[in-house]
Specification:
This protein is an alpha+beta fold and 229 residues long. The protein folds into two domains: 76 residues, Winged helix-like DNA-binding domain superfamily/Winged helix DNA-binding domain (Arc Repressor Mutant, subunit A), CATH 1.10.10; 144 residues, no CATH class. The chain has twelve helices and eleven strands. It has a three-stranded antiparallel sheet. Helix 2 packs across helix 3. It is globular, with a radius of gyration of 19 Å. 28% of the residues are buried.
Amino acid sequence: MIVHMEKQFREIAALIGDPVRATIMWKLLDGKAFTATELAIAADTSASNISMHLTKLVQANLLVVESQGRHRYYKFSGKEIAYAIEAMVQLVPASKRQQYQDENIPAIKQCRTCYDHLAGKTGVAITDSLLRQKIIIDNNGSFELSNKGRKWFVHMEIDVPLLEQQRRSFLRPCLDWSERRYHMAGSLPAALLTKMLAQDWLRRVKNSRAVIITAKGEKNLYELLGLRD
């Protein structure tokens, strides 16, 4: 059994380790589905080459493809794939990661999506505030929603019982690669991000994982969580 798992791990590592396929996986962290053409542009490769790489990723069950009209869209086969890719950034030496952030992606470091939930400095700050207010509780490294927290999310018009019934993680810590501290992941934080986007507290930046906080968002985040810039 152990030998079999080791073989499977080597195969997955080899798949992700290819530069083109690594670019595909990183691009899909946007949380959206992309066509082969869009992924070919991102990876700076040809249509025939991207097709070969996408086929391998689909066959390995890392990606799925959905057809809509004449277009075929690729996305992660499951949210755990996105979390694993995000976590791998922790393997980049801190000195190189810091240089890359400072020179190229300050907006990503400040506030970004981590697939379907909020990350970066803002994501960590929101998590810290919820912990301080005991809306969520750190139980030996696991996050739990308190009774006070249930009322808080009801106030946010988020259906907690419905989220708890989903076949995925409800609430858990996720190590933030830029802050080196934890933000929230799971169906509950994903619903919170969706709500903040719908209420125009946050806005996505086109062609980027970066998210900006609107003036309305600044006001509400301060009133609810005590957050400032």
